[in-house]
Amino acid sequence: MDPSPARKYHPLIAKFPMSWPPRGCNWCSDDEMVWAYPVGHVTFPRVNPADGIEIEVPHHAQQWYACARCKRYIEANQLEDLADRLGRPHGYWDRLMEARLKGSKGFPWAARSTARR
């Protein structure tokens, strides 16, 4: 399959396997998804609300999805501005960006909203 921007991938013919069905933008949670970024294995620190202990939550190789607004920030490498806009701490997405598969700029993504629920 040709991953050129002129062609959109759909969930049933996605180039990379998914570990969960996409529900929206992984950055801001908007329902819109226009771009998919392949990401390798990455862990994120999370605080367990039951006891307040910070743990590392693994995310295995999967795609991360962006809406049109977040994609502009990502492509311009303005993640700190995006973090400010969304109320996240600076450096919040550093691990994710480091795990982004080398050489991949991602590919267009289109999914029917009914397929995401």
Show the helix and strand layout.
Layout (H helix, E strand, L loop, with lengths): L34 E5 L2 E6 L6 E6 L2 E5 L1 H8 L3 H8 L7 H6 L7 E2 L9
Main attributes?
disordered N terminus; 117 residues; 5 strands; three-stranded antiparallel sheet; 21% strand; two-stranded antiparallel ribbon; alpha+beta
Could you explain how this protein is built, in words?
- The protein is an alpha+beta fold.
- It has one domain.
- Helix content is 19%, strand content 21%.
- It has helices at 68-75, 79-86, 94-99, and strands spanning 35-39, 42-47, 54-59, 62-66, 107-108.
- A three-stranded antiparallel sheet has the order 4-1-5.
In brief:
The longest helix is centred in the middle third of the chain and has 8 residues, at 68-75. This protein is 19% helix and 21% strand.
Rounded to the nearest angstrom, the radius of gyration is 15 Å
Biggest sheet character: 3 strands, antiparallel
Low-confidence stretches: 1-5, 8-18
The ordered string of helix (H) and strand (E) elements is: EEEEHHHE
Mean pLDDT: 76
Tally of alpha and pi helices: 3
Globally, the shape reads globular
Query: What structural category characterises the helix and strand content?
Result: alpha+beta
**Per DSSP, what share of the residues sits in E-state strands of 2 or more residues?**
15-25%
What spatial order of strands do you see in the largest sheet? 4-1-5
Relative helix content: 10-25%
Count of individual domains: 1
Distance between the termini: 27 Å
